[in-house]
Amino acid sequence: MSNTPNHHQFDAIVQQEDGFVFVALPFSPRAVWGAQPRYAVVGTINGIAVRGTLGVFAQAYFLRVSKPWLRASHIAVGDPVSVVLQLAGT
Questions:
Q1: Which among 44, 51, 41, 19 is positioned nearest to 87, based on CA atoms?
Q2: Which of 3, 21, 39, 57 has its CA 20 to 30 A from that of 30?
Q3: Nearest-10 Cα torsion for 63, 17, 68, 55
Q4: Cβ proximity of 70 and 21 under 8 Å
Q5: Which value, in Å, is the radius of gyration of the alpha carbons in the chain?
Q6: How many helices (H) and strands (E) does the chain have?
Q7: Residue 82 · residue 11 · CB < 8 Å
Q8: Is the pLDDT of residue 52 over 70?
Q9: What pLDDT digit, counting tens, does each position of 4-44 carry?
Q10: pLDDT at position 2
Q11: CA–CA gap between residue 78 and residue 87 (Å, rounded)
């Protein structure tokens, strides 16, 4: 799948810091989807449905994933993953 204004695909590593697990975005949602107060997204990680609101730290965006989601998906911290995201409701 190629990137479009609605879908953005990228490869990442599942990371953990201070007890929470996330996937860092290698792009700026503002540049892709325009300026918004919050970015609610839906998509997949390794083909498994995921949804959430993007977080930001020092202008770097990330998608937090829950530990129950990790257990159910059989994805672990440190795993390389393929991510497809789009704004929720688009």
A1: 41
A2: 21
A3: -20
A4: yes
A5: 12
A6: 2, 7
A7: yes
A8: yes
A9: 667 899 999 999 998 899 999 999 999 989 999 999 999 99
A10: 57
A11: 26
